[in-house]
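Budget justification note: compute hours in this period were largely spent on complex prediction jobs such as the one shown. Inputs:
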Amino acid sequence: MTTKEALINYCLRIGDTSLILGQRMSEWCSNGPVLEEDIAMTNIALDHIGQARTMLTYAGVLEGKGRTEDDFAYKRNEREFYNSLLSERPNGHFGDTVVRNFLQSAYFYHLYTALSSSKDELIAAHAAKSLKEVTYHLRHSAEWIVRLGDGTDESKNKVQTSINEIWEYTGNLFEMNDVDTLLIKEGIAINQTEIKSKWDKTVDEVLERAKLIRPTDAYMQTGSLKGMHSEYLGHLIAEMQFLPRAYPDAKW
Amino acid sequence: MDNTKKLEEFQAKIDADTKIEPKDWMPEDYRKHLQRQISQHAHSEVIGMQPEGNWISRAPSLRAKVVLLAKIQDEAGHGQYLYSAAETLGKSRDEFIEELQTEKAKYSSIFNYPTLTWADMGAVGWLVDGAAIVNQVSLQRTSYGPYSRAMVRICKEESFHQRQGYEIMAHMAKGTPEQKAMAQDALNRFWWPSIMMFGPHDSDSPNTGNAVKWRIKRETNDELRQKFIDKTVGQAEVIGLTIPDPDLKWNETRKSYDFGKMNWDEFWSVVNGNGPCNRQRLKHHIAAHKNGEWVRKAALAYAAKQKEIQNLKLEIRN
Ligand SMILES: [Fe+2]
Ligand SMILES: [Fe+2]
Ligand SMILES: [Fe+2]
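Corresponding output:
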């Protein structure tokens, strides 16, 4: 594997996670608990899709075969996506969404903080710009976790269940393979174990404020680095890709 | 001061084009008329998120997805300012939403039509937002201050939406034959409902009397409809689409287009609940509201606890 090949894969991991989470967040449109939350969630969806566009475009530029952001988003199959297992989890109820977003945003927050000084200029610039956005996403989701955790008995039970049920997908965030080994050596990527310890701290702080219990790490689901996902991803992609697949000659 | 005197002063202000503000005296009927109109407008913005939201997940490019998401977000924002403007008249947003959900309040009937293809995202922006702008530009001069100011803010964004919708239509109209057919089909389906958005003919519109006298409404339904048709016909021609009205013809003496008869039976049938999506839209709104109830309760409970802690801290300090 060349550095370039590794970097393309790295861009897809980040870009796909942003894309899939953005797609998930946009499902909330007109379904929020109050109008203000509808607006906030649409905002988060917009940020993620914007971030995805940069990363997918960059993957295409690096590859040099003329593939665009839309080619990556609309013309790949399930087994060619590298998004985190967390990002594709269905929205569930508001608490499920907030928990998923919190765990993913805390990861992005520490990832982008570190990547802001990546030796790859574009990755560094993308990280610096996205950091502002994910700082807001992290605050938004953390505040909701605290409100739900320390709100009513019902909300506390619900959000604790959300955390317990999604926990097995968190280990996947920190998995590494030879892509990481190569890019870490080049000063482009960051060692995921460093992110993990910072992520642990953020998660613990927020859960403590929310009076919620952090589940003990048991079995962790794996697979996204090899393009293996839950059954949910295929449906999400089928819906997202419908038009370009149905009308391959059309430009939109 | 007796009521006749107050009413005279009120009318004098209206006639001098001085805006009426929330703290000013106003006749009860003026207040009721505005509560109904502004809340109905707010509900329309919010219910309108559903037919457009229907295509976010299937937007055909990432750029199109972002544009559509941003548009719907603007509409939610419009709903927000309009609820705030309506609240200045002494009823809460919760009460207005309750009226919507119990069918005491209406929203624009156009949103009871389904969005069946991607071209509908073009048709809705171009025609529905286009019609809304004509109405809203006129409402910038409405006599109630908070409503007028909300319209000024909203109009800027609406004209953006109209252009983006038109861009989708234009693009599809010069695309593949299938795309062009989709664009024409969307125009065929949305044209008549869009021109009926302005409401019944002036001669059949009982509410117009007071609304004009109080300068809530600055132009009549028929005047606004004509303006919309006159500006839209040329836009359709430019992109090679045909407006589905065989009677549409330029009238040199009126310097306006003559157009065919609208189907008011269909209009009233949809207003009265028989549109393809009336039940779906309302059910969706009620379900989202219900599903969010535990979240709103939690937020209130949390805020109350925080306040107690704050008060306790203050007590200890004193
Ligand atoms: Fe609007
Ligand atoms: Fe609108
Ligand atoms: Fe609009």
